[in-house]
Design a protein that fits this description.
The chain is an alpha/beta fold. The chain contains ten helices and eight strands. The protein binds uridine-5'-diphosphate and magnesium ion. Uridine-5'-diphosphate (UDP) binds next to strand 1 and helix 3. The site of uridine-5'-diphosphate has 16 residues, from strand 1 and helix 3.
Amino acid sequence: MNSINSLAVVVPMFNEAQSIDRFIDRTVLALAATGLDIRFVFVDDGSSDDSVARASARLPELPGSAVVQLSRNFGKEAALLAGLDAALAGECDAIVMIDADLQHPPEAIPKMVEEFRNGNDVVIASRASRTGDSFARRSFTKLFYKSINWLAEIPIVDGDGDFRLLGRDVVEALCSLREQHRFTKGLYSWVGFQQLRMPVEYETRDAGESKFRYGPLVALALNAVTSFSAKPLRIALVVGFAIGTLSLTYAVWIALQTIGFGKDLPGYASIFCGMMFLGGVQLMGIGLLGEYVGRTYIESKSRPPYLVKRVISKGAGRARQD
Ligand code: UDP
Ligand code: MG
């Protein structure tokens, strides 16, 4: 059993001015019956619209809440970490992370709180179906999870996103991991604790467009694999070994043929193909190695994952529009 009196709601925002008011109204209404002390932590991830002004205008009616404004767009993973850090600095027994675009129905939170009380340290409001997404996006996601689960050593379930309720201990564990290349979905799995998956039907975006394009999604996939496993390097090793063995066998075969039947016509085409193929494989191997070395380089600088421009809380005045 877990006891809970106060709940922090962490909301990353990147140009969500159009939805934020409706999001706050719906969430406050959904949580009213829980009887918990509710505190919002809005993290502005470098929005260029008036998300900060909209959210800070609501602070007087949301006691203990704050808007953490980052100095630029650091990406959702860093924004979530900023939110968790800020939530930990205050009073809270658990934290729920939720998108500002109302794709995550806030009405699911009371049930998540109940499951937390039942002794689950992490309650994942998992996406029950992907009907709202385009066919291309659905296929990409499927391929993403298939490859990541094969390549990375940490299991990641399709549909499990950032809409989760985490106990304070879990948040402390997550915040102690300060890596720059954050693949949060992997980190949740890595920290462990008792987890419960609760299927929830997600909604379509309230306003505006998804911030994730295919480019960043491919980068995310690469990040996911390289942050959690060195398997690709091992695959490169196996491929190299296989090609080496094959060429050696071929060389022995040619030698025997020459001894037995004399000199044959030179095979320019086969030499050319072999060279190109090996060149390609070598470059891929070097590129892959470079990914890992690059990551080590970035991590070795130990830069903070995000920078805070300012924190707006009740009484700090109205935010200026950026
Ligand atoms: N978001 C963010 N920083 C970013 C991109 C997105 O804080 O660089 C926030 C965004 O405002 C939203 C949530 O992360 O609250 C999910 O983003 P989005 O809806 O664009 O992604 P999708 O739902 O399509 O995965
Ligand atoms: Mg969304």
